[in-house]
Amino acid sequence: MKFKNKGRKIYKTKEKNYYGKSPFGKFMSGALTVLLIGGIGFLGYSAAEPIINYTKHKGDEPSVPEQTSAPTEAGTEAVTTAMTEAVTEPPTEPVTESSYTAASLKGSDLANIDTLRAALAALPKNEDITYIQLPLKTAGGDVNYASYIAEAQNSLTSVLTLQEIITEVENSGYKPTAVVSIFRDNSMPAYYHDGGYVFASDGTLWYDGQGKPWASPYAQRAIDYNSAIVTELVNAGFERIICSDFVFPDFTEYDLQILDPILGKNDRCMSMTSTANLLYSIAVSNGSEMQVEVTAEDIICGRKDILQPMLLSSNNIVLNIEINKLVSGIQAGETLYEFKGKPSEMVDQCLMQVNGDIVDFNTTVRISGASLPTAELTSIKKILSDYGFKSVVIG
Q: Which of 183, 231, 211, 186 has the alpha carbon at shortest distance from 75?
């Protein structure tokens, strides 16, 4: 149903008629006005000095508002810390290129130097690829490089250092981009329970329906861990970092009853955007660029808390369209979204579904989840161009 905006009513009042006063009346009115102003001035001056002296007696330093009540949850303190750090004056964002053409490797491609070289050699040579996206921390929590961070040690899958990875990519004629999964992490909280969601009653670790814990944006350890990852990447020399998986698990109604009540509130998005802004600040302060990646599946399923253009420091995002997910259909609650036809036609249908959620962002589109022939990739790029997207990632 469409509602017509009737606008705001404007009410007008009739002007009153004021009749002129006699000369004597004018004189008396003026005299009374002078006396009134003088009286107010005298009272104000008399009262000002005691008030100032009383204020100075309290101390000359600016007063700091006292905290009226302590946070009841450790998670709330974590988000407050992250928001405080992220809301400070943001550094100048690096100039983003007008177009960005990249190919993405798999986590297994980073196992060692031989797998990395083989993956780089197998990339198509006729796609004008400039950047290589490297999944250095993937969904699930695997860390695909030799990190020095304590929380990463149980999740390492590679012997390669960041410098070895960067050197190999650059020697192959490309520029490296780091990709980091943030909260879709089941590994770190399995070893560090204070990094995950916990029961409100006793603080024990929560597991989803598949028996997996998740990293929580309300856990200071999870925020610190991802901050350390991004810091490690910018210190190694990555000029572009893409952070993905700013998502909550699909909580059941029962989960929301036994976990922190804030997880069922509309403003829970603040925990995601504040963490994104913190990571953005770390990257930009070190001369790097940071973007947020969202998947089309997450948007369709309602996992889009991160898409808050008024809260995010940067409006540059990456939309990941996974072809294999479109082929099998996307289940959102009781609704199955089906996509028909060739991959290019499914991409078009998907964009019609999610475009309204990303219209306020500068968007790079990533096509992943399937190996497509050149002709089909060309058709997809044409569709993306018709929508106004100039930057494309394949893989």
A: 183
SS3 of 320-381: the string is EEEHHHHHHCEEECCEEECCCCCHHHHHHHHHHHHHHHHCCCEEEEEEECCCCCHHHHHHHH
Cα angle 273-75-234, degrees, rounded to a multiple of 5: 50
**Chain centroid, CA 3 distance in Å:** 33
Q: Based on the number of CB atoms within 10 Å of its own CB, is 121 exposed (0-12), middle (13-18) or buried (19 or more)?
A: exposed
Q: Angle at CA 159, nearest 5°, toward 154 and 162?
A: 100
The full DSSP string for 97-109 is PS--EEEE--GGG
DSSP secondary structure code for residue 138 in this structure: -
Length of the chain measured in residues? 395
Q: What is the tens place of the pLDDT at every residue in 207-251?
A: 999 999 999 999 999 999 999 999 999 999 999 999 999 999 999
pLDDT tens for 158-200 read 999 999 999 999 999 999 999 999 999 999 999 999 999 999 9
The CA-to-CA distance between both ends of the chain, in Å, stands at 41
* Sign of the CA dihedral running 25, 31, 34, 37: negative
Main-chain dihedrals φ then ψ at residue 153, nearest 5 degrees: -60, -30
Rounded Cα distance, 161 and 145, in Å: 6
Beta-sheet pairing, 362-368 with 392-394: parallel
User: With b meaning 16 or more CB within 10 Å and e meaning fewer, what string describes 321-353?
Assistant: bbbebbeeebeeeeeebebeeebbebbbebbee
